[in-house]
Structure formats: C-alpha cells, structure tokens
Q: What sequence folds into this?
C-alpha cells in the first residue's frame, strides 16, 4: 500500500515556459511590464503609473533643472544662477530616486520570474496584502522620514557642496551677474593666496587648540568634582550638587553676555575689582588682545560645560558597585589604584560617546565666540578675528562679506574633520560595539 505523499515534500512543478529574461527585458523597456508578465498585476500597475506620472509631469522640469545645473545660466540679468542651481540639485535628487525605482523594478521582475519558473504561484490579493503588511510595514513607516531627510538634510548638503565649486561672491551675484563653475580654484586659493592662507591656518590651528583645551578642561573639572563630591567623607552632597549644577540652569547666552561685561577692558569688574587692585596698571586687555581673549573664552566655556559633565558622571558613579571597592580595599589598593582600575574605566565605558560629542560640539561652538566679542579682536593681514573659529569665520564670510563660495569650502573642510574624527572614535569606542563583539 502506497503511503500518502506529504505535501510539504512535494516538488513544485517547474514552469520552463516562463522566462526570467523576458520579464527583465520587458521591465527595462517600460517599468511594470515585467510584473504584468509575472501576473503581478497590482505591482505592475503601480510601476506603470509611477513611470507615466514621471514622464508626463517631471521630465521637462528635470531636463531644465539638469541644464541649469550644468550651465548655471547663459543670459546675465535673465537667468538666476542660484535658482538654477537649486532646481538642478532637486532635479538630480528626483532623477536618482527615479533611477533607483527603475532598477528595483527590473530586479524585482527577474526575481519573481525565477520564483515562478521554479513553481511558485502568485498570491491572491488578500494574501499579498497580508504579506506586505508583515514584511514591508517598517519600510512603509520609515518612507516619509526618509523623504523628509532627503529634502531637509541631503538637499542643503548637496547645495552647499556644489556652491564650493562656483565663484559665488559679492562680485558675482545674480541676477545682474552669472555664477560660473570654477572647479577646485577656491580650494587652491585657500592654501595659496596669502590672505586666505594666513587666515585659514591661523583660524584652523586656533580651532583645534580651542576644541582640545576647552573641552578637556571642562571634562576634567566636571570629572574631578563628581569624584570629589561622591566621596563617602563628604557631607551635604545634595546641597553641593545643587550648587554645582546651577551654572547649567542659567541659559548659556545670558551667562556669556554677563561674562562679556565682566571681562570688559574699561569697566569690567574683573579688571576694576580684581586685577587693578592686585597688580595695578590699567588691567588686562581681555577683549582687545587675542591671547587674553582666547584665555577668557576658554575659562567661560569651562564654566558653561562642567555642570553637564558633573551631572553625567555623578549618575555613573552611583551605578558602580561598592563591592568592587571593598574587594580592592581587601587587596590593599590605594585610592589612586581604585580610581585608575575601577572608577575611570567604568565611567569612560559608559560616557565615552557623549564625551566625544563634547569635542565635536565645541569644534562648532558658535555661540560663545560670537556673543563674547564677535570673534574679535581684529588681526592684521587676516579677514578673521583673533578668537574666530572656523564656524564663526564661515558666518562672517556669509553675512558680512557675502563670500558664499569660500564659506562653502570651509564648511566642507569642517564637515570632513568632524565626521572623520567622530567616525574613528566611535569605531574605537567599546560602548558602540555589539555585545558579542566586546
């Protein structure tokens, strides 16, 4: 007697007459035809509608946008180069999206044809809807956010990058004048033209010093105070912690403006009530001497930044088990050894990503530079002030001198530095690794 054959073990009949190559060719000729060949009528209809809509409504606009992106206009006074650049970037983004959908249509048609050839039967509408809900739901929900990111983040980024390869400045401003593509000339000028070269290397070096010194100092002060207050011998911990967090409660711009008045060369309380009574003379030129101005903003940033570090590390210290310290005491470890082998590694493991972001944040800390003394004082032979960092210099180039192209060049350099540094540090940080990789 023959045993019944288990349906799961039955081999599906192969449909040799269904050719994946035909499905792929049809999808190449027109999006959706391959899906219709595969009897996926709903999906094929959607692809056909998308391509027809694209050809009817967007093809002429995209052609015009790509022409404007290539030429930036040909008739001064009529063609607006920046508008053409904007339309060109939008056209480029839409074209990339359309090409991506077109390639997906071809790949999908071929894969479906191969499955049908191997015996797979297309699902019914209800089953298809259920499958789409189960597997495509996350992608459908993230699609609006992806589109928003494309036009809110990627579009301005592409526009600023392309702007760096033009001569868009005060003397080449549309619509009176056209903007031209100049290739790498702006990048070359930044390191070869004396005024640009001197300013760039001076501002860049100070930006690095500012970032490293100010951030390290605020982290060190916050770390030291957190460890100190967490000591079991310290009393009134709540009161001390409340007092140390108060600078964080005051809006930073208010604090900066108050400190700017206190450091004023003429009537500031630091000169009038501290420096002059102690050492005499006319006091220190906090706002008119680049060196002292830099020292002042580093001290101000330390005051502004240490409360966050203090609060952050205080919370981490509470999570360290006292058993570890008791075991270290039994082994005869000193306070420094307990700090080096227990406290410091634990805190750094938990806070390293946030501490890294402190460096990235201070690298682009525009508020304190501009609010304290607008990046001053002036420096001879440079078009940036003595305390200007790259971000404040970009602001001045954009709004004071209208040198948009050079500002875009510097913005690209800033972006590459910050992203490269952050990427390298995050890759090396254990807190960003998966559990199985540690």
A:
């Amino acid at each position: 007697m023959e045993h019944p054959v288990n349906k799961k073990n039955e081999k599906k009949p192969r449909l040799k007459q269904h050719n994946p190559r035909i499905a792929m060719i049809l999808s190449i000729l027109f999006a959706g035809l391959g899906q219709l060949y595969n009897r996926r009528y709903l999906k094929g209809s959607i692809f056909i509608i998308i391509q027809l809509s694209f050809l009817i409504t967007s093809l002429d606009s995209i052609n015009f946008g790509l022409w404007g992106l290539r030429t930036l206009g040909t008739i001064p006074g009529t063609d607006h180069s920046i508008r053409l650049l904007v339309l060109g970037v939008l056209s480029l983004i839409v074209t990339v999206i359309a090409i991506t959908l077109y390639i997906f249509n071809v790949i999908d048609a071929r894969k479906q044809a191969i499955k049908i050839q191997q015996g797979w039967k297309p699902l019914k509408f209800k089953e298809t809807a259920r499958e789409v809900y189960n597997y495509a739901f996350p992608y459908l929900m993230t699609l609006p956010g992806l589109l928003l990111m494309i036009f809110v983040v990627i579009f301005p980024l592409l526009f600023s990058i392309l702007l760096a390869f033009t001569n868009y400045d005060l003397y080449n401003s549309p619509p009176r004048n056209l903007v031209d593509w100049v290739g790498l000339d702006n990048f070359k000028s930044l390191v070869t033209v004396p005024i640009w070269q001197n300013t760039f290397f001076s501002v860049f070096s100070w930006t690095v010093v500012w970032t490293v010194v100010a951030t390290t100092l605020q982290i060190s002060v916050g770390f030291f105070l957190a460890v100190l207050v967490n000591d079991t011998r310290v009393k009134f911990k709540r009161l001390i912690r409340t007092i140390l967090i108060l600078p964080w409660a005051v809006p930073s711009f208010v604090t900066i403006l108050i400190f700017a008045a206190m450091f004023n060369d003429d009537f500031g309380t630091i000169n009038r009530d501290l420096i002059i009574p102690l050492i005499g003379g006319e006091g220190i030129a906090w706002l008119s001497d680049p060196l002292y101005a830099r020292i002042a903003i580093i001290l101000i940033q330390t005051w502004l930044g240490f409360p966050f570090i203090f609060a952050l590390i205080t919370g981490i210290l509470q999570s360290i088990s006292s058993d570890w310290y008791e075991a270290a005491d039994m082994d005869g470890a000193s306070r420094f050894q307990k700090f080096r082998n227990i406290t410091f590694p634990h805190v750094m493991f938990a806070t390293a990503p946030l501490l890294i972001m402190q460096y990235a944040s201070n690298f682009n800390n525009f508020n304190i530079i501009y609010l304290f003394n607008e990046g001053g004082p002036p420096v001879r032979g440079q078009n940036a002030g003595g305390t200007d960092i790259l971000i404040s210099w970009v602001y001045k180039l954009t709004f004071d001198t209208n040198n948009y192209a050079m500002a875009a060049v510097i913005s690209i350099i800033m972006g590459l530095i910050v992203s490269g540094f952050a990427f390298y540090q995050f890759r090396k940080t254990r807190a960003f690794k998966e559990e199985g990789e540690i």
